[in-house]
Amino acid sequence: MGFSEDDGAGTAGLVTAAGTAGLGGRVALVERNLMGGDCLNFGCVPSKALISSARLIQQIRESEKWGLDRQSPQFVFEKVFERMRSRRAKIAPNDSEERFE
């Protein structure tokens, strides 16, 4: 197998690099920003973490539908963002430079 150069360490670039290396090929992975690309850092992972918190709050607010006393939870943005950052940090090692060296 030959040599592959992948532009970007987002989902597609990382999968391609891992697959090529797994087949015995040599890979140069070029990323000018953050490992993990948009999905890990700005898109999929952060948005899903924030959306899941919002959905849970809404479910609690609608708890009377389930025969529970009504609750009025509020977003504590610092804690919601802390959870989002924690989720991102848990996934980040899978997309790290160390993993692909």
Walkthrough of the structure:
With 101 residues, this protein is mainly α. It is built from five helices and two strands. A two-stranded parallel ribbon has the order 1-2. Helix 1 links the parallel strand 1 and strand 2 (26-30). Helix 3 packs across helix 4 (77-91). The longest helix is centred in the middle third of the chain and has 18 residues, at 44-61. It starts with a strand and ends with a helix.
Strand arrangement in the largest pleated sheet: 1-2
Task: Note the beta-strand portion.
Answer: 5-15%
Mean pLDDT level:
85
Q: Per CATH, what is the topology?
A: FAD/NAD(P)-binding domain
Give the class-level CATH name: Alpha Beta
Summarize the structure.
The chain has a single domain (3-100), classed as 3-Layer(bba) Sandwich (FAD/NAD(P)-binding domain), CATH 3.50.50.60. Helices cover 53% and strands 10% of the residues. The chain has 5 helices and 2 strands.
Which labels suit this protein?
101 residues, mainly alpha, FAD/NAD(P)-binding domain, two-stranded parallel ribbon
Topology:
Elements: E1 3-7, H1 11-22, E2 26-30, H2 37-41, H3 44-61, H4 77-91, H5 97-100
Parallel strand pairs: 1-2
Helix pairs in contact: 3-4
